[in-house]
Structures are given as C-alpha cells and as structure tokens.
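Handoff note, outgoing to incoming analyst
You'll be picking up this chain. Sequence as last confirmed:
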Amino acid sequence: MWLPSCLDRFVHPVNVYDCYRLIFYMAMFCGIMPYYVDSSGDRLKLSYCGLFTAVLRLLFYPAHFVYTSIERHSMMISFSLTNVSKFTADLELFNGMVGVVVVMATSILRGQDVLQLLAIYDGLEQEAFPPVGVNFRQSEATRKIIRLSTFLFLTLLSFVIYSFIWIFPRVNSYISYWVVVSYFSPNFIVCIVSIVISGLLIKLRIYLSALNEVLKNLAHQWDTRSIKAVQKQRSLQCLDSFSMYTIVTKDPAEIIQESMEIHQLICEAAATANKYFTYQLLTIISIAFLIIVFDAYYVLETLLGKSKRESKFKTVEFVTFFSCQMILYLIAIVSIVEGSNRAIKKSEKTGAIVHSLLNKTKSPEVREKLHQFSMQLMHLKINFTAAGLFNIDRTLYFTISGALTTYLIILLQFTSNSPSNESSTGFDCCEAYHNMTNHTV
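Most recent structure output, in case you need it:
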C-alpha cells in the first residue's frame, strides 16, 4: 500500500510542496539541497542525512579535481590533442572544480531562501488567489517539471552511455576513475541545478498567468457590462494549470487591491529565487560557456585537420562525443534563459492589462486603485541576474554567441601559429608551461 500511495503523491500532488517533492529528492540525493518534503506534504524539512551527504560531496569532488590536476591526468590529454588543447583542458578542469564548489556551497549556505520561497508559493495558492476566484491544479505543473527533468536526464544519460560504451574503449591511454569523476561531475551538477531553477520558474509563470487572467476577466466583464451589484452568477473557466471562477459580486476596486497584493507576493518570490540562485546562475553559465567554447574548438580543430590525434576512433566519433556534450550544456542554458524570459514577459503583460483597464474605467475609486497598481508595476519589476553582472533573458544568447565567435577565432589562430604544427623541433609556450608545472610538482 505504501508504494502506490507514494507514487500517487508524485503524480497527483495536492499542494505546492507535493509538486516539488520529486525535485527536492533528486537535489538531496545529489548533495545540492539538504531539504525534502515531509510525509504530511505541507512543509520542507531539513535532512541531516542530506546535509551530511552535501558536505561529503563538497569535499569529495574537489579532492578528485586536485588529484587529477596533480597527476596531470585529464580526458583531453587522453585524446592526445595539441598543446593548446591541453592548456584548455587544464582551464576546463579548474573551471569545473570552482563551479562545483560554488554551486554546492551556496546551496547549503542559502538554504533558508528556499524555505521562504516555497512558503510564499504556498501562501499564494492557499490564501492570495482563492479570494479572486483562482484554484490551482498541481498535476499540470508537475507534468511540466517531469518532462523537463526527463529530457535533461535522458540527454545526459545518452552522453554518458555513449562515452563509456563507444569512446572510452577506443582511447589509447587508460582513463582512471578519478578522471571520470572530475570530468562528469560538473555535467551532473549543472543538470540538477538547471532542473531545480527551471522547475521553480514554472510555478512563477503560472502565477503571473493567473494574475493576468484575473485582470483580463475584469476587463471582459466591463466590456459586456455584466458587473452588477445584485448579480450572483459564477462561471467556471478552466485553463491548463488552474481554474478560475468569475466573481461578479465583488467590488472591482476590491479585486484590484487583491491583485496588487498578489503581484507584490509574486515579485517577492521572484526576488527570493534570484537571491538564492544568483551565484549558481553565474557559475553554471560560466561553466557552460567555457565548455561550449572548448568543445566547439575541439570539433573545429578536428574538422579543419589542425589536431594531431593518434587515437583509434574515427573523426566522426570524436566530433560526436564533444558535440553531444556541447548540446547538453546548450540545453541547460536554454532551459534557464527561456524560463526566466517567459516569466519576465508575462510580468510585462500585466502592465499592459492594467493600463487597458485604466482607459476603460469610469469609477474614480477604481481609477485611483489602478493608478496605485501602475505605480507598483513601475517600482516592482521581475528580473533575474547572475550576481548582478548580466541579465538572464534572451539578450544573453546574443552575448554568448558574440563571445563564442571571438574566443574560437583566437584559439584557432593559436593552433595555426603553433610551432608544433609546422615542425617537430619547434618550441611551444604551452609545452613550456607543462614542463614548468611538472618540475614544480
């Protein structure tokens, strides 16, 4: 009886905590977040086992990175590419170590922000939205989260299986356990954190959509002249993630006031989410950007015939390996950016609806409330940033594309001008760097 009941809570959640039960279990298992949804399904609870796992992994992953760096082992050195590629492999290893430490450390230290965020979500669904006639259905949001999680995990799993079954057996040198952990741990961390961030943004978009529908419904009532003090009609409107009752007996000024309070709570939730994820977003996007640059460089280097590989696998297999990893990180960036951008766009629609209502109303009291709402929209805006350095929206695509093109041109020029590509007796600055490092160790 316990197993079907447990599975039913995952598939058919009854509140916002049940909706995120699966995500928090995954994050706790991976050491990202030491919290889980308790059996009652009405709060997050600190797991001492999850906290111990998080601290253990926080020490476990850097130890692998340090050992791999000291022993001069890496995945790219096993592929025997050019000296430029070996240098980028060292940089990629350092970037992965710093990224994993920052993501896991901030997840532990700022855990209270997650408790506050889920409390705001629960308050919105249980207290704020019902007075304006909105009831939420958790199943649709849960299905979106499950689809996103499944897609990311299948992509990651396909890359790992392809690596172990097809690529690693064909590499000349032996790939140790330490190298595998150091290489794949950033992939798993980025995947899990992307799922958590995107999952939390799904709910935020649903709340903004519900708020916009409440205001649109009010405008529709004014258009059809159906607002009458004595009228007691209620009509049900069913949408994907929530159902809404048209409340025509309420005073419009009261509905607008409640909508203002809802909007303020949504903005508070967005600010709390951004405060919790700001350094994680910066770290994940930095990791993803560098790995995309390096993978694109490895692929172009091979296709242009600039690399000196003596491995047993074909060029198409080599290109497929790094292309799959590049696609995985591209998907992670797109899932975060699109989730953030859609929430921002839905919040911008609220302003347009409020000003449309302002043009239609003839009541001085309602007009005053709408003016207050308009001022609130000007001062409370939803935006997501990576530690305040850049915005997480679609403009990031253009920034990444421009930087990616610039760095690829620089790396390919280094490869073309490398003496090792012209004569076997040439002296390379990257080779000197490796020799100095080896003597130091």
